[in-house]
């Protein structure tokens, strides 16, 4: 009988086609009516009536249409094999079960069609002809039908049966989902768990077909995964249930767990990561303003499960990429970067989140070292993405993860991250052992691709990451010599890694301790052989693709020894020049000055080195080996001296006057010069150059003590380091002038400048005249003293030296006295005329006083309080010419002394009618408006008192005063820009209230005009400054335009709307600029 049944089923499959099954599915999904015209019918009733109607229509079709008989037989055959309940009092489940049966029929039919398909051999005469299409391929419209069916199955058969907190609630997805949630009858058989289990198992069975599987998992993977999580891992109160009462058996739960892991391994891994993150959920959301919480927090068992599954995704091959893609694509960046790739790459918060996830060792890992061993190679691979859009995101994530791991696990990061990155450079160090198999001339130790990738990775980690962690700095220190050699080689021709090498070297030199930085520079220059450098057998060579590679040198023939020697000398000279170019970028941090002082000290050692003792030694008792070693030391010593001399000459030529950035460096420079002079005296090697250098350095100290630099007590503590050297010079130097100057400098330093002799002043003047031989004192003060601005710690006060000639200043003093006497007479006359009863005389006097204030006349400004009193008294005058002149005078005076005058004006403007007349308060308002305009950007300093006064004025009983306050408020807000800050809400609330409720039309006009001024002043910045209140202002303007009876107010509103329209057009559609970027290669 079983054989007969199987044969019958096969015959049914052979006759049943896809079109009939899809037509049946369409029939189930066809929209229907309620059959009633009553308005009281609800959406729930409509849904239930439609489902019942479609089920009845399908059964009628099966019974009455003979063409559907084959499909009915196939459905019945599959239904008989099914082990899950299909009939139920719940219409939604009955509908779902019939849909699942038809999906199984569709799957079986498609499998049969694919098995029977036997494509013919392609015709060689027409190779361009497309191959025959498989009969189980669904058309676009058929795929849409299947997608709609799957959506109904998931909505009716999976989502309603998820417990709270598992997955996204159905009622918050769509309005239809909320209706479905309410019409599902959970009390009817079968139980909710059984329904969920049946739906998930059937959907997984349907997904076994490749075409159907892509449709199932593309949109519904998250819901199916949520259902399997609940079926397999949700804890149940089994102690309260007997075996007969249990809904799911342990075997079924085990099958659900296995199915979950199978589909997680089967689907696109970033999709799995993203859905697991959604299932895991975030922190609980607070309820605000009476609104319901959007979704419950995921239960603890689900959070633990998702964390475990996410860790398993991470530990898989290419798991890091899956996690990164899952998080970034979930943020809206798209599969390959997308249009939001730049925004995502710039979002440091997401990068920090991913970095913390990757840096944390999961519980499934045996140890942090095992985890780092598996994960770190994948993190390094993130640096090397070829896709430009995706590369920016992945490189940003890789950099942040690299730094985070180095901070949290420095030892493991050094072993599994830093060592692989720096391995190409370590391979060619002079401290490394090169295998004998590689010591063959021409052997490539580091390929072009490896070296370029190494430099780019170092740049991304160190310069872009910009975290001077000790493990990062210490790991890069040994390979600095190779990096500098590579930098020198790139300077010989065009190279894309030259700028990268320079940025890396500048970054590390700026982050190293000063002693280590100086030691590295010594190694660069060849003064310290202990610093690791490029192996003597290795050299850089241009590669075929335009890059650089490291190879073993070719053997040097006897005939090429001279050429090799020339190459070596020229190479060393170029290294020194490139070092000078590198140091030219290190002046601001003080490294160039410290290295220059070091070179000067080395120059002192060169000057005092006693070679005669070495030459006078007897070598009769020495062996040939010892003699050879001695000669080698002599040659190295000579080379060192030449390098030092070349460095000093180069630094003197290349470095600017800003090389010294603090007092300590200047004192060290003078001390080095004095030491060299003392050493020369000890060896009777005095020369003219030494004498001039000594005079210059002592003159520099005299200039500092003469007033060019404002010295502090701490600076004198540094200067006291020179006292022993100055004492030695004053006692031993043969020139009596230098002896006297050294003694006087000692006295001045010891007394902290309280006592200074004429010799110190003359030396300072002499030094300044050497720098400015034409005697341009003012230009010298502005430019020559700039080099000491940093030395004085920002407190430099360029003063005219007291050694300047008194006769030069005397004529100007006399002229000033004469000018002052005339100004005094005119000032007294103007003050008396300010109270003249004749209006023209009084107004002219006020105008004259205002002009003197504008010209900053000293005598006039000394009487500011009296002038302010005169101007304020004339404000009360009724004549326009008089009080406008007084307004101008107060405004000019307030521009010079706003701190003193502005508070009084604000108090007078804010006073009541009893103290000042409304006219006077209006005049003060005009003064305040002129002050706001005159202060410009500086008005932000007085933002608080001005805004508070104007806002209070907007509530004054006097309508004219309210309009004046609003006008002034508009002028102020127009100039505050981003400084408007938090008060933008207060200003907006005030304008809305006045524009809608004030009874005076003049005040309402002023309120609308404030908005016009605000939008006109902010222009394109309005979208940022007013982003929180822009919508409220727009509603206000529309309200005024529609309901305001006054034509002028409506005109103001129309102007404001036009300004707003222009702003938003420029914001949404910025003008296109046709530009062509031309890049010049270095």
Element layout with pairings:
Blueprint: H1 2-15, H2 18-29, H3 43-64, H4 69-81, H5 91-116, H6 140-157, H7 175-183, H8 192-206, H9 210-233, H10 250-266, H11 269-280, H12 300-315, H13 319-330, H14 341-345, H15 348-359, H16 368-381, H17 388-408, H18 410-426, E1 444-446, H19 448-464, H20 470-476, H21 480-490, H22 498-511, H23 514-525, E2 538-542, E3 548-552, H24 561-583, H25 591-608, H26 612-616, H27 624-654, H28 663-682, H29 688-708, H30 713-719, H31 723-732, H32 736-750, H33 758-771, H34 777-783, H35 806-833, H36 839-854, H37 858-861, H38 864-874, H39 880-896, H40 898-909, H41 918-935, H42 943-953, H43 959-976, H44 984-997, H45 1001-1018, H46 1022-1025, H47 1030-1043, H48 1047-1068
Antiparallel strand pairs: 1-3, 2-3
Organism: Rangifer tarandus platyrhynchus (Svalbard reindeer)
InterPro entries: ARM-like, ARM-type_fold, HEAT_TANGO6, Rtp1_C1, Rtp1_C2, TANGO6/Rtp1, TANGO6_N
Family: Belongs to the Tango6 family.
């Amino acid at each position: 009988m079983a054989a007969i049944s199987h044969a019958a089923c096969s015959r049914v499959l052979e006759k049943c086609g896809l079109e009939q099954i899809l037509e049946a599915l369409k029939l189930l999904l066809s929209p229907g009516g309620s059959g009633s015209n009553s308005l009281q019918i609800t959406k729930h009733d409509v849904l239930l009536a439609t489902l019942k109607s479609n089920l009845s229509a399908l059964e009628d079709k099966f019974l009455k249409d003979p063409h559907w008989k084959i499909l009915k037989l196939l459905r019945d055959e599959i239904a008989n094999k099914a082990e899950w309940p299909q009939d139920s009092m719940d219409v939604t489940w009955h509908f779902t079960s019939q849909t699942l049966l038809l999906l199984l029929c569709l799957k079986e039919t498609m499998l049969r069609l694919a098995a029977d398909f036997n494509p013919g051999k392609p015709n060689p005469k027409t190779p361009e002809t497309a191959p025959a299409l498989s009969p189980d391929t669904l058309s676009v419209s058929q795929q849409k039908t299947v997608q709609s069916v799957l959506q109904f199955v998931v909505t009716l058969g999976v989502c309603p049966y998820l417990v709270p907190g598992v997955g996204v609630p159905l009622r918050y997805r769509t309005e239809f989902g909320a209706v479905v949630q309410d019409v599902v009858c959970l009390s009817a058989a079968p139980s909710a768990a059984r329904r969920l289990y049946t739906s998930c198992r059937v959907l997984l069975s349907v997904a076994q077909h490749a075409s159907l599987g892509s449709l199932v998992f593309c949109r519904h993977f998250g819901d199916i995964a949520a259902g399997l999580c609940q079926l397999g891992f949700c804890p149940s109160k089994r102690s309260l249930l007997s075996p007969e009462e249990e809904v799911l058996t342990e075997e079924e739960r085990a099958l659900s767990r296995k199915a979950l892991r199978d589909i997680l391994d089967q689907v696109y891994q970033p999709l799995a990561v993203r859905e697991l993150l959604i299932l895991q959920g975030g922190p609980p959301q607070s309820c605000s303003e009476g609104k319901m919480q959007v979704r419950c927090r995921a239960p603890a068992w689900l959070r633990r499960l998702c964390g475990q599954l996410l860790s398993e995704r991470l530990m898989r091959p290419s798991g890091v990429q899956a996690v990164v893609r899952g998080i970034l694509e979930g943020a809206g960046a798209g599969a390959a970067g997308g249009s939001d790739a730049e925004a995502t790459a710039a979002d440091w918060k997401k990068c920090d989140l991913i970095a913390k996830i990757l840096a944390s060792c999961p519980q499934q890992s045996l140890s942090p070292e095992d985890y780092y061993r598996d994960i770190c190679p994948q993190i390094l691979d993130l640096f090397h993405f070829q896709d430009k859009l995706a590369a920016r995101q992945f490189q940003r994530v890789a950099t942040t993860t690299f730094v985070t791991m180095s901070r949290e696990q420095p030892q493991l990061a050094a072993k599994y991250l830093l060592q692989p990155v720096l391995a190409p450079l370590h391979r060619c160090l002079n401290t490394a052992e090169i295998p004998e198999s590689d010591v063959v001339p021409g052997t490539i130790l580091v390929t072009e691709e490896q070296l370029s990738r190494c430099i780019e990775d170092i740049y991304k980690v160190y310069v872009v990451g910009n975290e001077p962690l000790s493990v990062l700095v210490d790991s890069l220190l040994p390979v600095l010599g190779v990096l500098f050699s590579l930098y020198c080689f790139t300077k010989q021709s065009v190279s894309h890694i030259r700028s990268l090498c320079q940025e890396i070297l500048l970054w590390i030199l700026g982050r190293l301790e000063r002693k280590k930085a100086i030691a590295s520079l010594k190694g660069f220059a060849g003064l310290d052989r202990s610093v690791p450098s490029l192996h003597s057998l290795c050299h850089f060579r241009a590669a075929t693709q335009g890059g650089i590679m490291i190879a073993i040198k070719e053997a040097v023939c006897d005939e090429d020894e001279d050429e090799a020697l020339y190459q070596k000398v020229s190479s060393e000279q170029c290294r020194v020049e490139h070092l000078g170019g590198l140091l030219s970028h290190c002046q601001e941090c003080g490294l160039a000055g410290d290295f220059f002082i070091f070179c000067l000290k080395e120059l002192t050692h060169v000057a005092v080195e006693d070679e005669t003792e070495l030459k006078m030694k007897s070598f009769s008792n020495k062996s040939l080996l010892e003699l050879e070693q001695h000669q080698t030391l002599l040659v190295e010593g000579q080379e060192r001296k030449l390098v030092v001399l070349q460095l000093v000459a180069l630094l003197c030529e290349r470095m600017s006057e800003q090389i010294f950035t603090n007092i300590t460096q200047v004192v060290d420079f003078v001390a080095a010069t004095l030491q060299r002079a003392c050493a020369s005296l000890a060896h009777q090697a005095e020369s003219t150059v030494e004498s001039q250098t000594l005079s210059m350095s002592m003159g520099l100290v005299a200039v500092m003590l003469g007033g060019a630099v404002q010295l502090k007590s701490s600076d004198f503590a540094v200067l006291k380091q020179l006292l022993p050297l100055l004492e030695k010079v004053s006692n031993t130097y043969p020139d009596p002038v230098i002896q006297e100057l050294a003694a006087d400098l000692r006295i001045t330093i010891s007394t902290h400048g309280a006592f200074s002799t004429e010799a110190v002043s003359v030396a300072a003047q002499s030094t300044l005249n050497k720098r400015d031989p034409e005697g341009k004192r003012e230009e010298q003060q502005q430019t020559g003293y700039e080099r000491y601005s940093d030395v004085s710690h920002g407190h430099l006060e360029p003063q005219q030296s007291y050694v300047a000639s008194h006769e030069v200043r005397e004529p100007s003093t006399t002229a000033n006295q004469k000018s002052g006497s005339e100004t005094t007479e005119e000032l007294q006359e103007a003050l008396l005329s300010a109270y003249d009863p004749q209006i023209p005389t009084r107004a002219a006097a006020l105008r004259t006083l205002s002009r003197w204030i504008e010209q900053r006349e000293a005598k006039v400004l000394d009487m500011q309080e009296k002038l302010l009193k005169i101007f304020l008294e004339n404000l009360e005058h009724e004549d326009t010419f008089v009080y406008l002149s007084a307004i101008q005078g107060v405004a000019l005076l307030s521009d010079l002394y706003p701190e003193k005058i502005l508070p009084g004006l604000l108090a007078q403007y804010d006073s009541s009618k009893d103290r000042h007349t409304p006219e006077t308060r209006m005049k003060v308002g005009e003064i305040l408006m002129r002050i706001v305009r005159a202060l410009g950007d500086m008005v932000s300093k007085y933002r608080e008192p001005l805004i508070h006064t104007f806002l209070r004025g907007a509530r004054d009983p006097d309508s004219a005063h309210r309009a004046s306050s609003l006008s002034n408020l508009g002028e102020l807000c127009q100039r505050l820009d981003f400084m408007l800050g938090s008060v933008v809400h207060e200003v907006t609330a005030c304008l809305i209230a006045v524009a809608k409720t004030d009874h005076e039309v003049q005040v309402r006009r002023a309120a609308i005009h404030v908005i016009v001024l605000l939008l006109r002043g902010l222009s394109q910045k309005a979208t940022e400054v007013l982003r929180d209140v822009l919508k409220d202002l727009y509603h206000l303007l529309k309200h005024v335009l529609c309901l305001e009876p006054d034509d002028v107010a409506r005109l103001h509103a129309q102007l404001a709307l036009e300004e707003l329209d222009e702003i938003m057009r420029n914001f949404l559609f910025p003008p296109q600029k046709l530009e062509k970027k031309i890049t010049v290669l270095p």
